[in-house]
Every structure is written in structure tokens, then in C-alpha cells.
Amino acid sequence: MSLFNFWKKEENLFDENTTIEETRFVVLDTETTGFDYDNDRILCIGALILQNGIINVQESFEVYLEQEHYDKSTAQIHGILKDLLVKRPTELEALQQFLEFLGDSIIIAHHAIFDVTMINRALLRNGLPELKNHRLDTAYLYKKTLIQSHLFERKDHYTLDDLADKFDISKKDRHTALGDAYITAIAFLKIVKKLKEKKATNLNQLFKPL
């Protein structure tokens, strides 16, 4: 698929009334050299397909990017070393691979604004348009599962660790892009289940504000 055809396809936005089960989601996470959108870079993109309540691990996506920018302090968190013996495509090549995998799917990520913005900045650096995919944030969706009461104080910020602990999800591969994407995918399924227990929930309702 050419990039032109990809972006042409993206103009046909999905119908939000489609059921959650039949929708193709791509759950993603990025590991980066830091949190500065302008100066930091993506080290790795990890992504999984989620459809019909199934996480398709066999068709997972993981790419380590060629690096010129490196930060030793963040390497202690993500464990990605500068001389890691993995074939690394250029940023442009990695983005092209990711776009092919993503297609017109809905993006799911934890604190999605960070991952999507980092990818968008990389796209712009390489002369490509920003992502047009609709996106869902598990940190935001989790708040919809909480009881609304003056006796219960919601936190402003729920980490992926918070959700893993709440839903008893293993954190064995935490702080790897693919590992965090897997935790996020399981958390999303747990969140949808809880929302459906409260009331009938469809895809359109997932996008409604709190």
C-alpha cells in the first residue's frame, strides 16, 4: 500500500456506531529517550491488534529505531541500550512499517496524547501528515468505571501500574513497548467489561466525555 493510498483511505472515517467487538483496535506504546516532544526521539514502537475481544499476539508489531539521540538516564527505565544488537530501520522506515500495520484502526494507548504526539512529531519530521485515526485513552476510560461519589476521591492521574494493580495484570514486561501495549490491551478489555456491567455500552459511548 502506498502512503498516498493510505492517507486517502484515512479520509473515510469509521462509523462510531459499529460495535466494540467487530472493531479493529491497535493498542500501542512507545519507548522514548525522554518526554520532550521537540528534542526527544522514539526508541521503540510496540503494538498489538485487538478485535472480537482477542489480543492477537501472533501478529504483534515491534520495531526498534535507528538512534542518533540517546539518554543514559532513561535507559535505566526502558533498558534499550545504544549498541543493542537488533536491526534498526531509520525513523522513516519504521514509521512506514507502523502505518502499514495501523491502517485505519482505532488507536488505544495509556495516556495516548504522549504516544500519538511523539509519533506525529516523527511523521512531520519526515514530511508525512499526522495520524488521523480516532483514539481512546485507557487512563481516561478507567475513570468511567469509578463510582461517582463525594465519599470517593478520584485521582487526576492514573498510571499504567495503577491499572495493572487494580485488574491484577502481570507487570513482568513493564517498560517495554510491546509489554506495555499488552498490559494496556488487557486493561482495556477489563474496562469495557466493567462499563458493560454498569449499562449497555457501544463504541460510540466510549468516546463520550465523563
Structural summary, described in words:
The chain has 210 residues and is α/β, with parallel strands linked by helices. It has a single domain, classed as 2-Layer Sandwich (Nucleotidyltransferase, domain 5), CATH 3.30.420.10. Helix content is 39%, strand content 17%. It is built from eight helices and five strands; from the N terminus they run αβββααβαβαααα. A five-stranded mixed beta sheet has the order 3-2-1-4-5, with helices on both faces. β2 and β3 form a beta hairpin. α5 runs parallel beside α7. The longest helix is centred in the last third of the chain and has 22 residues. It is globular. The N terminus is likely disordered.
Strand arrangement in the largest pleated sheet: 3-2-1-4-5
Low-confidence stretches: 1-14, 74-81
Helix segment tally: 8
User: What structural class is derived from the secondary structure elements?
Assistant: alpha/beta
CATH superfamily: Ribonuclease H-like superfamily/Ribonuclease H
Q: Helicity, in percent?
A: 25-40%
Radius of gyration: 17 Å
Molecular shape: globular
Order of helices and strands: HEEEHHEHEHHHH
Binned strand content: 15-25%
- Give the termini separation: 38 Å
Q: What is the class in the CATH system?
A: Alpha Beta
How many domains in all?
Answer: 1
The second-level CATH architecture is 2-Layer Sandwich
Oligomer: single chain
Total beta strand runs: 5
- Per the CATH scheme, the topology name is Nucleotidyltransferase, domain 5
Mean pLDDT: 85
What summary fits the major beta sheet? 5 strands, mixed
